[in-house]
Structure to design on (324 residues):
């Protein structure tokens, strides 16, 4: 009997010594997701992120929170996500600046857009509009070019920040049109737009979702769109290429996760994003302000980013820009 009791105790002890099998990981997502926007509230990146977050929450049945982490042309927010745990709960919704431009402009942006992120999907592309203060001493693009040539360096233009598409697009126009304007960088689109309306700056490039309502309200004047042709929703606004042949620039927005995020998690996010972007209500909401919704695969988005790095690199080299 004693031997049997001893054997029973020994068996129980052996069972306790066996490491417990890990419980099955909770299905993703099992907690709230954060989407970091590397610019202030009020701009197009923020607008796209908030609509996407609202609809993704319904698709994923989990809270999706937008966090604005502006500064250094988007580098601060992008670097934060690059260093985040690669579990799919911290994402970056970014424009071209942090994902394809900044590495070539800044000596040390704090991250590598190719190595430090796992692409999820290209979300949208947006026409860039050239706008002016209604009281500026010109009413057309041709008038702006003529005035700038007659008064070199006297006009000020604003941008969403150094290295952003709004900045580089104006530098490209300066190069192609042979004009000289002074750059005033802002921390995002909203403060630049406020100063344009207030008359502190005379012109700026900005994305159509934020400029078109102001143009319709009469607080900004549209001089042209940077697309290669006129936009159907804005047929009365000329393409800049009509005055400056070959001119073209476009803003875009994409969702990425930290490098090392499990492929299954990336695929779950990609599928949810593509369902959101196929929603007729979402399409209609964005089409009204000229936003083209995309939605592609992670591999397609990676190739797109790589191509954009090359494209903007040529512009940066041609303009001789370097920051930091």
């Amino acid at each position: 009997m004693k031997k049997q009791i001893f054997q029973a105790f020994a068996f129980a002890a052996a069972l306790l010594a066996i490491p417990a099998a890990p419980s099955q990981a909770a299905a993703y997502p099992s907690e709230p997701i954060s989407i970091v926007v590397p610019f202030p509230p009020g701009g197009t990146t923020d607008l796209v992120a908030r609509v996407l977050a609202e609809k993704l929450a319904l698709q994923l049945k989990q809270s999706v929170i937008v966090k604005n982490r502006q500064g250094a042309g988007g580098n601060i927010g992008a670097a934060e996500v690059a260093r985040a745990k690669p579990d799919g709960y911290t994402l970056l919704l970014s424009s071209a600046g942090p994902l394809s431009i900044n590495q070539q402009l800044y000596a040390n942006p704090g991250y590598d857009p190719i190595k430090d992120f796992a692409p999820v999907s290209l979300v949208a592309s947006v026409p860039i509009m050239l706008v002016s203060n209604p009281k500026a001493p010109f009413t057309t693009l041709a008038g702006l070019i003529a005035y700038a040539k007659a008064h070199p360096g006297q006009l000020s233009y604003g941008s969403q920040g150094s290295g952003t598409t709004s900045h580089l697009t104006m530098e490209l126009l300066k190069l192609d049109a042979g004009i000289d304007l002074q750059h005033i960088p802002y921390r995002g689109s909203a403060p630049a737009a406020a100063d344009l309306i207030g008359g502190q700056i005379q012109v700026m490039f900005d994305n159509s979702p934020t400029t078109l309502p102001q143009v319709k309200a009469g607080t900004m004047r549209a001089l042209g769109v940077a697309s290669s042709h006129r936009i159907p929703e804005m047929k009365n606004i000329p393409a800049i290429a009509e005055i400056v042949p070959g001119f073209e620039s476009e803003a875009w927005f994409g969702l990425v996760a930290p490098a090392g995020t499990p492929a299954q998690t990336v695929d779950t996010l990609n599928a949810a994003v593509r369902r959101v972007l196929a929603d007729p209500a979402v399409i209609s909401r964005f089409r009204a302000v000229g936003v083209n919704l995309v939605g592609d695969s992670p591999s397609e988005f990676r190739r797109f980013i790589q191509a954009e790095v090359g494209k903007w690199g040529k512009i940066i080299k041609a303009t001789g820009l370097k920051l930091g």
Notes: Strands lie at 33-37, 64-68, 90-95, 117-132, 156-159, 182-185, 203-207, 221-225, 250-258, 292-293. The chain has two domains: 33-126+250-319, 127-242.
